[in-house]
Amino acid sequence: MKPESIRLIKDVDKSFIVYHEKNPFSPWHHHPEIELVLITKGKGKRMVGDHIDRFRHNDLVLVGSFLPHVWLCDQEYYQPEGFHGEGIVYQFQYDFLGPQFFEIPEHKPLKRLLEESTRGLKFTGKTKEMIISHMLKGYKLEGVDRLYTLFSIFRILSRTNEYNVLASPGFIEPFHKKGNEPMQKVIEYILQNFHKLIKLKDMLEITNMSNTAFSTAFKKSYRVTFKEYLLKARIGYACRLLTDHSTTISQIAYDCGFENLSNFNRQFKKLKGLTPSQYQQKAENDRLIQPKQMLRIASGKKIKLDLSDRN
């Protein structure tokens, strides 16, 4: 399924968009605007480029221009009386403040981060807390107060390294490359249907290619075979579910498109060097160790970044 081009309407007296979303979130889509997305209510599956993950409330992601994305809430948020999810979106064109605004020397760190956002950036830590605070205040403001709230967010973004890059480096260029539409359709199909049985013949039908032509074109675009890409997508999503501890390993195997648990265990260990249960235990141990490390850092007064919003 090709990503839809869905754009919010900007008021004529505004230079950028701030939108409080209370309706079902948009389907798989993209747009030219850079978008800061905060999920204030909801949990489910998030897809940004070729990155698949679980999300929950206070999920905060910066989505770059034309990067396909979707937040799919779990079924519990769709009730007869209406949709129960909620989010806040800040959206702006790269040149909304003029063609030179992000080009000045002082904005070099911010420009670099916005360039990285073409792969999607998920924020964490103090950065996340501070940006969420500004977003929650800013969407209720108007005029220059709202604009300066965005400037405060820019200031935080220019100083941080508290984020995870989402989409793989190999996704963006081939996905947007003109003339590569057949491979785009394949990647979209995989991301939408990786939890189901996917066969090579399905890909041949989608692309209208022969087996040899498809295999050659896919590996040329993504530097791995179709089967390797599909396996990485499934195992990548499984890793995220394993750290959630809300689902059994057998259910995770099924949710990620594996027909039986033994095959899931075998493929997971082949790719990650650990069994799913070992990976889950390691993730839990790392989670317990991290607060102790942060406590030692705090007691030693070693602070890597000053992210405060002091004037």
- The CATH homologous superfamily of the largest domain is called Regulatory protein AraC
Helix content: 40-55%
What's the number of helices?
A: 11
- How is the main sheet built? 6 strands, antiparallel
Number of domains: 2
Top CATH class of the largest domain = Mainly Beta
Query: What portion of residues belong to β-strands?
Result: 15-25%
Average pLDDT for all residues: 85
Look at the helices and sheets and give the structural class: alpha+beta
Give the topology, please:
Blueprint: E1 4-5, E2 17-21, E3 29-30, E4 34-41, E5 44-48, E6 51-55, E7 59-63, E8 69-73, E9 78-79, E10 82-83, E11 86-92, H1 108-116, E12 121-123, H2 125-138, H3 143-157, E13 163-165, H4 169-176, H5 181-193, H6 200-207, H7 211-222, H8 226-242, H9 249-255, H10 261-272, H11 276-299
Parallel strand pairs: 1-3
Antiparallel strand pairs: 2-11, 4-7, 4-11, 5-6, 5-8, 7-12, 9-10, 12-13
Describe the structure.
- By secondary structure, the protein is of the alpha+beta class.
- The chain folds into two domains: about 5-165, Regulatory protein AraC (Jelly Rolls, Sandwich); about 170-285, Arc Repressor Mutant, subunit A, CATH 1.10.10.60.
- About 45% of the residues lie in helices and about 15% in strands.
- It is built from eleven helices and 13 strands.
- The protein has helices spanning about 110-115, 125-140, 145-155, 170-175, 180-195, 200-205, 210-220, 225-240, 250-255, 260-270, 275-300; strands at about 5, 15-20, 30, 35-40, 45-50, 50-55, 60-65, 70-75, 80, 80-85, 85-90, 120-125, 165.
- It has a six-stranded antiparallel beta sheet, covered by helices on one side.
- β5 (about 45-50) and β6 (about 50-55) form a beta hairpin.
- The protein is globular.
